[in-house]
Design brief:
The protein folds into 6 domains: 2-78, Winged helix-like DNA-binding domain superfamily/Winged helix DNA-binding domain (Arc Repressor Mutant, subunit A, Orthogonal Bundle); 87-150, Arc Repressor Mutant, subunit A, CATH 1.10.10; 174-288, Orthogonal Bundle (PTS-regulatory domain, PRD); 294-399, PTS-regulatory domain, PRD, CATH 1.10.1790; 403-472, no CATH class; 495-645, Mannitol-specific EII, Chain A (3-Layer(aba) Sandwich), CATH 3.40.930. It is α/β, with parallel strands linked by helices. Helix 15 crosses helix 18 (356-373), helix 22 (518-532) packs antiparallel against helix 23 and helix 25 (620-629) runs antiparallel to helix 26 (633-645). Helices cover 57% and strands 12% of the residues. Keywords: Activator, Repeat, Sugar transport, Transcription, Transcription regulation, Transport. Residues 293-399 form the PRD domain. Residues 502-643 form the PTS EIIA type-2 domain.
Length: 646
């Protein structure tokens, strides 16, 4: 039991460090304990343990306000690979030993080498069996020997899993990668390979996905190591013409940078990995060639789902160029799924919390593609779809976000024209100047633009009036930008407050939410409150559970917003549950669960409520205030309104 407890404690230390790095400010032991589901005393012990990771600098600082990251926090996070002598270290060494030797390992010899009992190694081998689940590999045990049975490609996937197990999601630690494959490839050579590969792919006319490049470098290093040890891949099936150029590039770089000559099977396999995981056509000629090779069934499925998403969420994404680019991504996604490749997307969590509406559209698209193409789509793949969707939506939103402005600039000759030119140049992406007033005594009351930028004193103070200089300064630009942000936020939150007053109900509020039944238990508990009100039926509850299984609706560290993808509620309503202490949800813990049921008639309000509700609960201080003081429905609404009003 002790090793298991050690692993749990170590994982919670890492989770604590991650929370503090994300917070980047002071946080109390009580707040951190609630986020981890432990006691404040445990937090203090975790901090002590974290500070032993670097003998020369603090990993976590302590003070009257609680804890915050110290100067050694980042290095301590990167150093968290696999400590010598831990169960995790033994697991990795056992796997590498069986991968390196066709005859496997002798249990008693490895026990002596690692200074543990054979019974401990037997327990570790049981964990190896769990690790092999779904990998087309089997662990065979005969007397004192243990070995792996399976094809070379499956063995490499296992090495890739070990590498990812040692690296934090989204990070690229070359030293960890080197250890994962046995240490045969130097850090300097791996770093040079990465730079040369990105440069070479760019020269070939591709855009390179830097978020996925670490995974590809891991595959190349693993392939080079296995080939050098006498375990090459057999010939792979032929690929598209674009793979030929990439294959030649990889063969040259692996030879030059790593000193390994790859066989035809390895070259083709790695070229297909690059083509399906890390590049998109950068030049029009590349794009035209690759689009001509798209599977019509994939294009049709993407077009159908995108058009449905555009209608369901009232977003302008149903454009041919977007559909073709997304279809190319989905076709590559299918290749990755068939190969059992799990992508890593370091922005998935951030996209979910910062752009919940965009992520929700991506979930809708992914769900539709799952149904039509029969391929499960994991959370990190949804994150990449969200990046495509977000790029398209943001292009269309740019003009919608412009605030109108009037310039008041009495002056001499062409002074007002120079000022307008400066404003357009410096602030053109945020505001649109629709009128220039050159009189000394303008009719201030008749100016109805969002902002008034004036070089003279206005008679009435207002948040939309910004005093600027006749010759625009950097300070003027900063003040106008700040005013624009305040106005946009104020309008959004005012709309949210009005919507919440309509959608929240006293009969759909629970204080002391029980999380023992997991996410589904909470959804059923809140769902029954809405069913009892006649807002939804049991089918809506079932669809909400389906949506939750696809991707966690914990959009912040404190808030989950379970809901169905289709807006089929009889009327719009929100059931709220408060958990104090927090309850497990997805990969983290939450204090507030808001089950949202929207009807078709409120389709336009969905974006506002969804995005701004998540925004309110993204600020830890606000969440703690609401949880602490929202003891019943009236006080919850009062605290929520106070937070919204700032």
């Amino acid at each position: 039991m002790r090793p298991h407890g050690g692993r749990v404690t170590r994982a919670r230390q890492d989770r604590l460090l991650g929370l503090l790095l994300h917070e980047n400010d002071w946080a109390t032991a009580a707040v951190l304990a609630d986020a981890l589901g432990v006691t404040p005393r445990s937090i203090r012990s975790y901090v002590t343990a974290l500070n032993t990771r670097d003998p020369n600098a603090l990993v976590v600082e302590s003070g009257p306000l609680g804890y915050r990251v110290g100067p050694a926090a980042s290095s301590a996070g990167r150093a968290n690979a696999v400590e010598r002598g831990t169960p995790r270290d033994r697991l990795h060494r056992l796997v590498r030993g069986m991968l390196d030797s066709p005859d496997g390992i002798d249990v008693y010899e490895i026990a002596d080498e690692l200074h543990v009992s054979s019974a401990t190694i037997d327990a570790d081998l049981m964990r190896v069996r769990t690790l092999l689940s779904g990998m087309d590999l089997a662990l065979e045990r005969s007397a004192s020997r243990a070995k792996l049975r399976g094809e070379e490609l499956a063995r490499r996937r296992l090495l890739s899993r070990l590498a990812h197990d040692e690296m934090d999601a989204g990070s690229f630690d070359l030293d960890v990668l080197r250890r994962s494959v046995g240490g045969s490839v130097s850090m300097d050579a791996s770093a040079k390979l990465k730079g040369d590969l990105v440069a070479g792919l760019t020269e070939l006319g591709f855009f390179v996905n830097e978020f996925a490049i670490a995974d590809v470098i891991a595959h190349i290093v693993i392939a080079a190591d296995r080939a050098a040890r006498g375990h090459p891949l057999g010939l792979a099936e032929d690929g598209p013409r674009e793979a030929d150029d990439i294959e030649a590039l990889i063969a040259r770089l692996v030879s030059d940078d790593l000193g390994v000559e790859l066989g035809a099977g390895d070259r083709r396999h790695l070229a297909m990995i690059v083509l399906t995981r890390v590049v998109e056509p950068g030049s029009e000629s590349r794009a035209a060639t690759i689009r001509a090779q798209l599977d019509p069934a994939v294009v049709d499925a993407v077009r159908e789902v995108v058009e449905q998403a555009a209608s369901e969420y009232l977003v302008d994404i149903a454009h041919d160029d977007f559909i073709l680019r997304l279809a190319l991504h989905v076709q590559n996604l299918l290749h990755r799924a068939r190969a059992g490749a799990v992508p890593r997307n370091p922005l998935t969590r951030e996209l979910k919390s910062s752009h919940p509406m965009i992520f929700e559209v991506a979930v809708f698209v992914a769900s539709g593609l799952q149904d039509r193409l029969g391929t499960p789509i994991v959370d990190d793949e949804i994150g990449y779809i969200a990046m495509h969707v977000g790029g398209r939506i943001e292009r269309n939103r740019r003009s919608e976000r412009l605030l109108t402005a009037t310039i008041v600039c009495p002056g001499y000759q062409e002074l007002h024209e120079l000022l307008r030119s400066s404003i357009d140049r410096s602030l053109g992406q945020a505001i649109e100047v629709v009128w220039v007033e050159t009189r000394m005594d303008p009719d201030w009351a008749s100016i109805d633009t969002d902002l008034i930028l004036t070089t003279i004193e206005a008679p009435v103070a207002s948040e939309r009036v910004v005093r600027i200089q006749p010759f625009l300064t950097d300070a003027d630009v900063a003040r106008v930008q700040a005013a624009a942000v305040r106005i946009r936020r104020g309008r959004r939150l005012a709309t949210l407050r009005a919507d919440l007053q309509r959608y929240l109900a006293p009969d759909a509020f629970v204080r002391g939410l029980d999380g023992s039944g997991g996410e589904e238990g909470v959804i059923r508990r809140l769902g029954q409150l809405l069913v009892a009100q006649g807002v939804i039926d049991e089918d809506y509850v079932a669809h909400t559970i389906e949506r939750e299984r696809m991707s966690s609706t914990a959009f912040t560290d404190a808030l989950a917003v379970p809901h169905a993808l289709a807006m089929t509620a009889f009327r719009t309503s929100i059931a709220v549950g408060i958990a104090d202490p927090s309850i497990p949800w997805g990969d983290g813990r939450v204090n507030v669960v808001a089950m949202v049921a929207f009807s078709e008639t409120d389709r336009e309000a969905f974006q506002t409520v969804f995005e701004q509700f998540v925004e309110v609960f993204s600020e830890r201080d606000s969440v703690q205030r609401i949880i602490r003081n929202g003891v019943d429905f009236p006080s919850f609404v009062e605290e929520l309104a106070a937070v919204i009003d700032g």
